[in-house]
Amino acid sequence: MFVKIFLFVCIWVIGCYGKRGKRIDIYSQSGGSDIAQLKLSTAEGGAFAAPPHVMFNALPSSSSYRWTVYTDVQGNYVLPYIITGNFDDEELAIIQSAMKAIENNTCLRFQKRKNEKDYLDLQNERNQGCYTTVGRQSGKNVVMLEANALATCVEHDIVVSAIL
Predict the structure, then answer these.
(1) Where is the Peptidase M12A domain (predicted)?
(2) What gap in Å lies between CA 13 and CA 3, rounded to an integer?
(3) In terms of Cα–Cα distance, which of 70, 146, 76, 133 is closest to 105?
């Protein structure tokens, strides 16, 4: 009996305090992947060699969907955000680190949302994987970063990719 109780406690402790779930492969999510499409089209002879129905994860400089609505005094583009997903402290630190890496290498700046109409909403829902829309849509722009005991997108490189 003691052995059964001991094993139950061990499994419970590992489940509650173990590392996040298996890293989600962003190249093979159900429903397809714009990253896989871009990789395929590049392999076939360049980024513009894909059929016209393929949506890439980039916007032309003239696009009205670029995040150029909000700027700071230095002329950087501000992306207002909120985090409504249930992330633990380690996951939040990874998200913040990814945002900081983007800020250090681009003209994008992340700022907690005050009352801006357009904003990023970082969410975490089971069985949703990692995804976001391409560019700025009107209103809430969901950035889905699944993180649980079975699977996670909250790895530095995946968060950077999802946010960009």
Answers:
(1) 57-164
(2) 15
(3) 76
The model's pTM is 0.70
pLDDT tens-digit profile of 107-164?
Answer: 999 999 999 999 999 999 999 988 888 889 999 999 999 999 998 999 999 999 899 8
Q: What is the rounded CA–CA span in Å between residue 130 and residue 161? A: 10
What's the token pair of residue 66?
A: 């670029």
Sort strands 140-145 and 130-132 into parallel, antiparallel or unpaired. Answer: antiparallel
The backbone region for 139, taken as left when phi is positive above 0, alpha when psi lies in -120 to 50, beta otherwise, is left
Domain 21-29+63-163 in CATH: superfamily?
Collagenase (Catalytic Domain) (3.40.390.10)
Q: Which two tokens stand for residue 113?
A: 């949302």
Domain ranges of the chain: 21-29+63-163
**Per DSSP, which regions of the chain are E strands?**
22-23, 77-83, 108-112, 119-123, 130-132, 140-145, 151-152
State CA 33 to chain mean position distance.
13
Place of tokens 């003691």: 2
Q: Cα dihedral sign for 4, 5, 8, 14?
A: negative
